TrEMBL record, chain A:
Protein name, as recorded: Lactate utilization protein
UniProt-listed Pfam families: Fer4_8 (PF13183), LUD_dom (PF02589)
Keywords: 4Fe-4S, Electron transport, Iron, Iron-sulfur, Metal-binding, Repeat, Transport
Transmembrane segments: none
Keyword Aminoacyl-tRNA synthetase on entry: no
Domain 4Fe-4S ferredoxin-type: 293-323
Keyword Iron annotated: yes
Organism: Sinomicrobium pectinilyticum
GO biological process: lactate metabolic process
An MF annotation (GO) of this entry: 4 iron, 4 sulfur cluster binding
PROSITE patterns: 4FE4S_FER_1, 4FE4S_FER_2
From TrEMBL, chain B:
Listed GO CC annotations: cytosol
Organism of origin: Sinomicrobium pectinilyticum
Matching InterPro entries: Cys_rich_dom
Protein name per the record: (Fe-S)-binding protein
Domain Cysteine-rich: 3-83, 124-218
GO molecular function, one term: oxidoreductase activity
């Protein structure tokens, strides 16, 4: 099937020279994360604490959401509730229209990406500029982020240079990161000045204060929020923490896990609107209640979108984020994706070796490999089957359940000509695009252990 | 002490030497070893492919064997993990479940290595198989901040002359992953090939692991790439006399 992770990752690996570079770029983040981990004596305790705080908050989510809303309203914020992606889009557009805003600067938000906000607003005649540099790059290229923290990690600086040359008339062939960043910065400054409204994502909602917290490295959220009369914060309903004490646990974990920084350059707290400004918080569900309602998968709601599972994942690093064909890629993305379409995302929980490295880096200790394993069982039940795989598994399980059939199959196996086992008919054998062999089947020994054992016993 | 030896399907069919070496090692430690004829497979190939339900019935021979042995030992961390964390977990008490041991784990935690006499004067790179490391806690995974330990290295100290190397990224997955190896073959082979490069950089002659499944995949990649490196299960190392 075209468009599956297996095919898209194959294209990434065989159709480009990017795999090793991509792998190393992400491993660099994992290595930086390890260095930051070592600066905190109680790192593992911090992770357990974070998981416990999230579980607690989720167990009383309705209460905390109400507290959050009450406090936010007291602060002068306007709170809206969006049941799904469509409602988020419509509420956002209405706020903009009501405030006569035509152009918007937007800081990084995977939630608005998930809800398809940009294309909708553009279709409605608004101008939207993503102001996070990585997101701006993928926006100019009409692509989607390939990673939730470093959205343009799939692009080399030369590609960015070409895009900027085409869209912003930069010097052709000048791929100096300093040059490209300074041009983007200058262009974005103008966009900030021109825009009528600002939209941000939200990293944490603090229930006791009715405040939202946004973490950025570029200060772009602040540039929008501090200069616009209309401000909208889009927050997934799982982003809540009870209070500032709990928040501190997460600000210690987030940047360390994500990019190996002790903290993001900006950790901005937005509590009440400036004078003559309307500030809105849209609390979004979009299937989160489905995840919340499933006792097996509820722990996925702990996720703070740090991306550490992607950086460590040996499959993600080699296959690129777009091969996951879902807004959030990598291990956590593959856990979330089936909630947004089982049939179209049924391949994703299989795009993993279940090595468990993601579990160990996850700052909120989500059992990602365990959840992928659970999805595999559910999806083979609830979606259409790959018949050859299913039949193969059925035959295999019948053979492995019966000594007689197993012994017979073992003998037949030994009669299969070596040429056939080593041929392309055996799916184990892989040829690389350049024609060289990638992997071959083992030599089959003359006798099995069981046969040897039987003979050995008879001899003695 | 009676030890039931479970030789998993693919080791039985493709790597009988690993079964023989395991049997001999267990006998050397002074255990009364019973080769369990009836259990053929832990069910992992189907279960990891989403067909756990096809493995109902796989548990029967294990349930029959467990009460008759003090330990059920297998030279495969991933099979041992699947037995103790999936197939048998809902069916037997924690005490019975604790009888299921991977070979290294059994030697380290129970039998000891004093009676093992082995020598293998070669440079060997250790690949830390995921299920053994992260599933059975055979050592410290690189992601966690916990004091360093390695049951595998301790057990392999019984091998004289062994020049054991733990290269960088020793605990990165080899790319086998069961049916992943076939259905996601491009990523799988790329991961194996990167493992091959890492081991080659460490200039080892052999690559050893607790799991023959990882090694089957790596052997396939090594041979396809004409690498002179060879693979060895830790049971083969522990039973070598060179």
């Amino acid at each position: 099937m075209k468009g599956t992770h297996a095919n898209l990752s194959k294209d990434f690996i065989t159709g480009s020279d990017k795999t090793d570079w991509h792998n190393n770029a992400l491993w660099f983040l994992r290595a930086k994360r390890d260095i930051q981990r070592d600066t905190i004596e109680d790192w593992e305790k911090l992770r357990s604490t974070a998981a416990a705080i999230k579980d607690h908050t989720l167990s009383r989510l309705p209460e905390y959401l109400q507290t959050f809303e009450e406090n936010a309203v007291k602060n002068g914020m306007q709170v809206h509730w969006a049941w799904d992606d469509k409602e988020l889009r419509e509420i956002t557009a209405k706020i903009l229209k009501d405030n006569n805003a035509r152009s918007v600067v937007k800081s990084k938000s995977m939630l608005t990406e998930e809800c398809g906000l940009n294309p909708y607003l553009e279709q409605e005649g608004f101008e939207v500029v993503d102001t996070d540099l990585g997101e701006r790059i993928v926006q100019l290229r009409k692509e989607h982020p390939s990673h939730i923290v470093v959205p343009a990690i799939h692009l080399k600086k030369e590609e960015v240079s070409d895009t900027f040359h085409e869209k912003m008339n930069t010097e052709k062939g000048n791929a100096s990161p300093d040059y490209l960043a300074s041009v983007a910065r200058e262009a974005l400054r103008k966009d900030f000045m021109k825009a009528d409204a600002a939209i941000t994502g939200v990293n944490f909602g603090v229930a006791e204060a009715g405040a939202v917290v946004v973490c950025t490295n570029e200060g772009n959220a602040d540039m929008g929020v501090h200069s616009k009369k209309t401000v909208i914060h889009c927050m997934g309903m799982e982003k809540l923490v009870p209070g500032y004490d709990e928040l501190a646990v997460f600000t210690r974990l987030l940047a360390r896990s994500a990019t190996g920084q002790p903290v993001t350059v900006f950790t901005s707290h937005y509590r009440k609107p400036r004078p003559e400004t309307t500030e809105h918080i849209i609390i979004v569900n979009n299937k989160r209640t489905d995840i919340f309602a499933d006792p097996e998968f509820r722990q996925a709601m702990r996720c703070i979108r740090c991306g550490a599972c992607m950086n460590t994942c040996p499959v993600y690093r080699r296959s690129g984020g777009h091969s996951y064909h879902h807004t959030v890629p990598g291990p956590i993305g593959s856990v979330l994706a089936p909630f947004y379409g089982k049939e179209k995302n049924k391949d994703l929980p299989f795009a993993s070796t279940l090595c468990g490295s993601c579990n160990n880096v996850c700052p909120v200790k989500i059992d990602l490999a365990g959840l992928l394993y659970r999805w595999r069982q559910k999806l083979t039940d609830e979606t259409s089957s790959d018949m050859s795989k299913k039949i193969g598994m059925e035959v295999g399980s019948k053979i492995l359940k019966s000594r007689k059939k197993y012994d017979l199959a073992g003998s037949v196996f030994r009669w299969v000509p070596k040429g056939l086992l080593q041929s392309g008919l055996n799916p184990w054998n892989v040829h690389l695009p350049d024609g060289r062999k990638g992997r071959v089947f083992p030599e089959v020994p003359k006798e099995s252990f069981r046969q040897w054992y039987k003979k050995n016993q008879e001899d003695s | 002490m009676t030890v039931g030896l479970f030789v998993p399907c693919y080791i039985d069919q493709l790597y009988p030497k690993v079964g023989k070496d395991t049997l001999e090692i267990l006998e050397k430690t002074g255990c009364n070893v019973v080769f369990l004829q009836d259990p053929l497979c832990c069910g992992q190939p189907m279960a990891n492919s989403g067909y756990e339900k096809m493995t109902s019935g796989f548990e029967k021979p294990f349930l029959k064997a467990l009460p008759e042995v003090d330990y059920l030992v297998t030279p495969s961390a991933s099979c041992s993990y699947h037995l103790s964390h999936h197939l048998l977990k809902p069916l037997v008490s924690a005490e019975e479940l604790a009888k299921v041991k991977e070979l290294t784990e059994f030697l380290h935690d129970v039998a000891g290595i004093d009676k093992l006499k082995a020598s293998f004067p070669h440079k060997v790179g250790l690949h830390l198989s995921c299920h053994g490391l992260r599933g059975l806690d055979l050592g410290t995974p690189s992601e966690l901040k916990v004091p360093y330990y390695s049951k595998i290295e301790k057990v392999l100290s019984a091998v004289e002359g062994l020049d054991l190397v733990v290269p960088p990224k020793a605990d990165e997955c080899c790319g086998f992953g069961g049916s992943f190896a076939v259905f996601e073959s491009a990523v799988s082979v790329k991961m194996g090939s990167d493992k091959m490069c890492g081991m080659a950089e460490a200039e080892v002659e052999y690559v050893a692991a607790t799991d023959m499944s990882c090694l089957m995949h790596l052997e396939g990649v090594f041979r396809a790439g004409d690498s002179p490196m060879r693979v060895m299960h830790i049971a083969e190392l522990l039973n070598s006399e060179e």
